[in-house]
Amino acid sequence: MNVLQRHLDIGVMEASGLTHESHKKDVEQVYLRCSEGSIEWMYPTGALIVNLRPNMFSSSSKHLTVCIKPFKDSTGANIYLEKTGELKLLVRDGDRSPNKVYCFGYDQGGLFIEATPQQDISRKITGFQYELISKGIASDLHTVSAPCRPCSDTEVLLAVCTSDFVVRGSIQDVTNEVEQQESVIDVSVSRLYRQKSKVFQPSEESGSWRGQIKTLLECGVKPGDGDFLFTGRMHFGEARLGCAPRFKDFQRMYKEAKDKGLNPCEIGPD
């Protein structure tokens, strides 16, 4: 491989197939020990076996889900799930499904990336982002049944303790992206409780903190009055909406749980 870089828990792998032009049937292996990152294969020829070996106890590996998100302009290779010599096609070369994410259990196998025959490989680059996440979080992000249903009181209180971001704010605008089947919520933040990444930042124009959260288009989110408690997860660098009760409802459920000694963690509701 030409370049292999790792920093913190994010892995970046770049490779070029031009140096292997005389060995178009070569199969090379790469090992990545980061929990998230990206792979970019320039001028693909032959095949790559991608081995994800996270720096964690092996006993916890069975509880992991692997998700990959191909780059928008990724082309030049098919991506398979491989286990004991059997291949299952995940991403076909040329598939232009916008923002589609493919997930599978860590114990289901590894990734086998096979270059497709090309007249001019210099115009081809295959690439994708990857994440290793716990199966519980993965099911939250990619739930099939009732993805837009309101959270119960218990789910809200747990989300406050475990989410990547927790903010109080109002919906300023909603942009519907029909092609991606997503809605982008523009949030004005009145209080920032926690954020894993710098999704919400001070706005010079309004003087308040602002940020964007994505959710499914089918949920039908619309701008409206009042404050909400927004919680959710970071997924491929984007904030994905989890539980989002009206703030007055959160205050009620938080106080009731606190009075009974049942709140899973402390957070100032005011």
TrEMBL record:
It comes from Crocodylus porosus. It comes from the Eukaryota. InterPro entries: Meteorin-like (IPR051998), TIMP-like_OB-fold (IPR008993). GO terms for cellular component: extracellular space. It is found in: Secreted. GO terms for molecular function: hormone activity. Keywords: Disulfide bond, Hormone, Secreted, Signal. One of its GO terms (biological process) is brown fat cell differentiation. Gene3D superfamilies: 2.40.50.120. Belongs to the meteorin family. The keyword Disulfide bond applies. This is Meteorin-like protein. Coiled coil: none annotated. The keyword Acyltransferase does not apply.
